[in-house]
Each structure stands twice: as C-alpha cells, then as structure tokens.
Amino acid sequence: MKYYILFGPPGAGKGTHAGAIAQKFNLRHVSTGELLRAEIAAGTPLGIRAKELMDAGNLVPDEVVEGMIENVFNSVKDVDGFLLDGYPRTIPQAEVLDKIVAARGESVSGVISIMIPDEEVHRRIARRAAIEGRADDASDATISHRIETYHAQTEPLIDFYKAEGKYHEVCGYPGTIEEVRERVLALVDSL
Ligand code: B4P
To answer: Which of 113, 134, 137, 176 could form a disulfide with 169 if both were Cys (CB 3.0 to 4.6 A apart)?
Structure first.
C-alpha cells in the first residue's frame, strides 16, 4: 500500500488536485478538512467542537483527526493506497501517523508538497469565499490566522520529512490549475 501525503499551505490546491491524483494512481483520497466539514454538517458532538476551532482559523485537536484517519485505514479496501490531504498538520500528528502506518507493516511513501506564497493564499481564499461561503474563509483576519497557524504548526513538517528523504515539492504558483496539475501528476509518477 502507498501512503502519500498531500501537503501545502491553506488554499495551495490540495483539494483541487487530489481527485486527479487519486484517480490516476488508484488511491483513496482522504481529506481531514472534508471529514470535519461532514461532521459539522451532521451536527455531531465532534462537529460542534470542531466548528468553533475551524471557524476561527485554528486546528482541531490532534487526537480527533487521528481517530478519523484510523477509521478510514481500517474500513477502506480495494485501493493501491491512500492520499492524505491536509493530514498530518503538526509534528505530533506526523509521529502518530508513522506509528499507525508502521503497525500495518508499512511506511509513509512520500510527501507531495504544493507551495504558494502567502499573498496568493489570501487571493485564492478570498475568491473561494465568494463561491463556497465557508466560514473559515470569511474574513481577512481569519485567513491571516490560518496562514500564521500554518507557519507555526505545519511548516516544521517540511524539515521532518526532508530528514526522512520523503519531501518532494512542486511550484503551485504561478500557473493555471491545469499547469499545476500536470506538475503534480508528473511528480507522483516519478516517485
Ligand atoms: P482544508 O479543508 O484542508 O482546506 P485548505 O487548506 O483551505 O485548502 P486546500 O489546499 O485544499 O485548497 P483548495 O484546493 O480548495 O482545511 C480546512 C480546516 O480544517 C483547517 O484550517 C483546520 O481547521 C481543519 N483541519 C483539516 N485537517 C486538519 C488536521 N490534520 N489537523 C487539525 N485540523 C485540521 O484551493 C483553494 C482555492 O484556490 C480554490 O478555490 C481553487 O479553485 C483555487 N486554486 C487552486 N489552484 C489554483 C491555481 N493554480 N490558480 C488559481 N486558483 C487556484
């Protein structure tokens, strides 16, 4: 089984390109953001707790997403692997992921990172806010806080995975969605 991590700042295009990667390489796309939004829509206790944190641009607690990831690993069959979109987002999450995957006799296959500058994060999320109406896209202050959260808690994962020789990066800006998709697919093909 392959265990790929799709990495990047908010709005880098993880969700935009995940479907094409998953289809081409027969992977199950697992977006922790989407799983959390489904919990919110269903009004579960987990969703109610997550909504407040997400709307403010914060991460939800590590153990919440870990439980969701384990459920998916244990229930999904008939694929060649998993494409983890937006997970892990902290060093403790990465350490736990290593353990979960090792317990299955496997290891993380590689990190596919899409990199864009902070100013472009602002532009894209402001555009998406007008289309999708997500509460965590709604204000400039929330977007700025998500970018700060990314630099403080998620960016250190780059060195974590570089040290393991698993970090691979493509340029997500400049470039149209189609151009970036070509870059991402070529990268995964080369892994
Ligand atoms: P996510 O759902 O992962 O959302 P994201 O980081 O904003 O988006 P993504 O990178 O997928 O951007 P997209 O393709 O849509 O997370 C939301 C929240 O969930 C987090 O803030 C956190 O609170 C919580 N969460 C999730 N995982 C967690 C975890 N592991 N631990 C704790 N908390 C967690 O692209 C954005 C926009 O850009 C789109 O509108 C797209 O059309 C556009 N775009 C893409 N590529 C473009 C291009 N090349 N040119 C122009 N526009 C482009």
So the answer is: 113
Spatial separation of the C-alpha atoms in residues 65 and 58, rounded to whole Å = 13
Active site residue 123: no
Q: What is the pTM of this model?
A: 0.94
What DSSP line would sit under 1-59, residue for residue? Answer: -EEEEEE-STTSSHHHHHHHHHHHTTEEEEEHHHHHHHHHHHT-HHHHHHHHHHHTTPP
Q: Which CATH number fits domain 2-190: 1.10.443.10, 3.40.50.300, 3.30.70.240, 2.30.29.30?
A: 3.40.50.300
Cα angle for residues 4, 35, 54 (degrees, 5° grid):
105
Ligand 1 near 143 CB (within 6 A): no
Question: Which residues, in sequence order, are CB contacts of 175 under 8 Å at separation 6+?
Answer: 183
**Percent over 70 (pLDDT), the chain:** 100
pLDDT for position 77 = 87
pLDDT digits (tens, 9 = 90+) for 60-103: 999 999 999 999 999 998 999 999 999 999 999 999 999 999 99
